[in-house]
Amino acid sequence: MDRDVKKLKVMVLVREGLEPPESIEEMSDDEYKNAPWKCEFDVVATLENLGHRVRVLGVYSDLAAIRNAVEEWEPDVTFNLLEEWESIALWDHNVVSYLELLGARYTGCNPRGLMLARDKALSKKLLAYHRIKVPEFHVFPRNRKVRRPKRLAFPLFVKSVTEDASLGISNASLVTDDTALAERVRFVHEKAGTDAIAEQFIEGRELYVSVVGNDRLMAFPVWELLFTEKPKDRPLIATRRAKWDSKYQKKWGVISKAAEELPAGMAERIQKLSKRIYRHLCQSGYARIDFRLSPDGELYFLEANPNPQLAFGEDFAESVEKGGVEYEKLLQKILRLGLLYRPVKV
Fold it and tell me: Is-cis flag, bond preceding 21, omega within 30?
């Protein structure tokens, strides 16, 4: 994919409390797979195995800790695994902006790309302008009465406008009347502490595309989320439990794999569209683009996920490996992209 980068000093930035252990030899496979720091361990262990000098820095709300580490250790690049700041997902772009102000190289998405993608309403508006099909939607701000626009027809899917990782998403997120809509909007306001977005629910297949690059982009095989034990009359919803609860996954046969039996030319169309979306949303480093494919063959953009889960064996890494790039080479590529990226001056 790329010739190996030289051995580097890599600071791995993680949330405080998710610093991985040095070894997992005494852990069972289930304990390791369900550990909250699994992604952090996979990245750190792989970088060390590749010969890089790695230092892990756990932070929550102290920017001074980042500045001190950059000034004292002088890393060649910071591998950014932070997904929030002070438990606020929308603030992750501030950390990256701070790294830029320090003149530090970092992996993953730039501040502008993070801001555009994290706001699900803003990203849909921008892509609709570029004539990319998105579901009809409406934002319900906090502290305002819930009034559904007449153009917004049921069923609707309600979620936070800025939170990711399926926070607050359950089967109750799918609503079919105004009473349920108002109740779910209030739930999002209270649970997530953010505005809520209600969007047209698109029945169909849940598809993901992994994209890597800054200027020259690579889109990998289309991936699909499947519920192999789900009753046919039950809608497919990527709830938080479906993504992170192993018992729930076993019960409903939740798996993800390379999408099969797509309509002729659809895989290439989705990959090409994913690159367009990546560029329109000013992404860099790596991201996952999410779609719904309706039974009549219409493709709808759902959301973009910059800096997606990088754990070994998860969707992103699996799809990249299916495309011919092993996990070690993926992390090397992400490091190289971080070293090459330069903030855009406008």
Answer: no
158 and 245 belong to one structural domain: no
Are residues 298 and 285 part of one domain? yes
Return the CA Rg of the chain. Answer: 20
Give a yes or no: residue 207 inside a domain.
yes
Cα–Cα distance measured from residue 263 to residue 82, given in angstroms and rounded to the nearest whole number: 37
Do 103 and 173 belong together in one domain?
no
Other beta carbons within 10 Å of 282: 18
Tokens 């929308």, located at residue: 90
And the tokens for 161? Answer: 């406008």
- Tokens for 52? 């890089």
Task: Give the pLDDT confidence of 287-342 residue by residue, as tens digits.
Answer: 999 999 999 999 999 999 999 999 999 999 999 999 999 999 999 999 999 999 98
Whether 44 and 173 share a structural domain = no
Q: Which of 286, 284, 280 is nearest to 343 (CA)?
A: 284
Q: Return the pLDDT at 346.
A: 47
The span from the CA of 175 to the CA of 173, in Å, is 6
Does residue 249 register a pLDDT over 80? Answer: no
**Of the residues 171, 200, 229, the one at which a domain ends:** 200
Count of the separate structural domains present in the chain: 3
Is the pLDDT score of 187 beyond 70? yes
Contact 155, 180 (CB under 8 A): no
pLDDT tens, residue by residue, 13-66: 999 999 999 999 989 998 998 899 999 999 999 999 999 999 999 999 999 999
